[in-house]
Amino acid sequence: MFIIAGYALLSCDSSKDVQLKPGIWRGILNIQDHELPMNFEVKRGKKLKIYLINAEERIELDEGMIKGDSLYLPMHIFDADIKARITETTISGKWTKNYEDDYSLSFEAVYGDSDRFKKTTASTTFASKWRVTFVHHEEGDTTEAVGIFQKNNDKMTGTFLTPIGDYRYLEGTASEQEMKLTTFDGGHAFLFTASRVTEDSITGDFWSGVEWHETWYAVRDENAALPNPDSLTFIKEGYHKLDFEFPNLNGDMVSLSDYQGKPLVISIFGSWCPNCLDETRFLKKWYDENKNRGVEVLGLAYEAKPDFEYARNRVLKMKQKLGVDFDYLIAGINDKEAAAKTLPMLNHVLAFPTTIFIDRNGEVQRIHTGFTGPGTGHYYDQFVKEFNKTVDNLLDNSSYEN
After folding, report:
1. What is the average pLDDT value for the chain, to the nearest integer?
2. How does 51-62 read in b/e, with b if 16+ C-beta sit within 10 Å?
C-alpha cells in the first residue's frame, strides 16, 4: 500500500529511503491498451526534482516525497499525482487525476533510456503542414485543425492547432509509413499515431486519458489555416460591456467596475487547462514587464469543482508555482455552458482560455478565443506581436478616451 501522507513521509528515517538514480528515464503510461512513452530527468540535491520532457519543454516537479520504497509525486499545478513503488532504477505504480472519478493509468519507468520510441532515423515523409479533421465517432463531432510537424535529427516534433487551442509540445518518431507522437505534462496524456495513405494524405488515431479516442485524417496543405480567433466569441446584440461580480481568493466580491479607468486584460482560465498554463506563463512575464504602464490583468477561474475552497487552493497553488502577481476571481466550474451563464453578455464560452481586452472606458475592444502557445513556433510569435499591439492601442488615450 502506498504511503501518501506528507507528514508520515517526512517523519521516517530518510537513510532507509530508496534514492532514484539521477539522469534520464523512460516512462510508459498504459492508455486504453496502448503504450504512451515519455521521458523525464531525475535530479537530486537538497530535494528531489523531476523534470518532464516534451521536445523543448521541461516541467519541474519539486514536491516529490519518498518513504522507503514508496514515491508520492504531485504533478506541478495540476490536481494529479503518481504513486508508485520504486527501486534505484525502476518505478511502478499509477498516475491519477484526483478530481475525476476512476481516472488512473498504470505507470512504469526504467532508468537510462532516453529514447521515447525505438531509435531510428526519422523520415521526412510527415514533415510538413497539414489540413486536419478530427472525428469523434461516439459524439458525432468533427474538429478542423492544422498539423505542423518537423524532423529534428532522429526525432519528430510538432503540434496540432485547433480553433480552441493547441496540443502543445509533441515528440516522437516517424518512418516512411508511420508516425507516433506523445506528450505528458503531468495533467494530460496524449498519444497520436499516423499512417501514410498517399504521398499527400495521412490518417491516424488520437488517444487521451482513460477513454477519449478520435480518428483523424489530413492532407498536405501549406496554406492550411483556422478561423480568425477574434471572430468566434463576441458581445451579444443588446449588450455593450461586460458585467460581473465574483469572489476573489479572500472571498471578497469584486466587480468589473472596480477596475474602472484602467485598461484590462481578462483571462477566462482554469488551473486544470494545459493551454491556460501556457497563457498564464506568458501573461505572468508580460505583466511583470508592463504593469507600470497602467494596464491590469485579471483571471476568471473556472475550476474542476464548485467548492470555493477547492477552487481557491488550486488557483493559489498555480500562482505560487508560476510566481503570478496579478489577481484571480473564482468565477465557476470548468463547464463551457455553465461558464457562459456567468457571462450572459457573451455569445458563448467556446474555449479555456479566452482573452478579453477592455479599454479604460470599459468597452470591449477584442475577444481572442483559445491560445496559441510556444509549442507552435512562429504562430506563437505572431500571437505575442498582436497581443502587444492590442494593449498598446488600449493604452493610447487618444484612441479610446471620450
Report:
1. 93
2. bbbbbebebebe
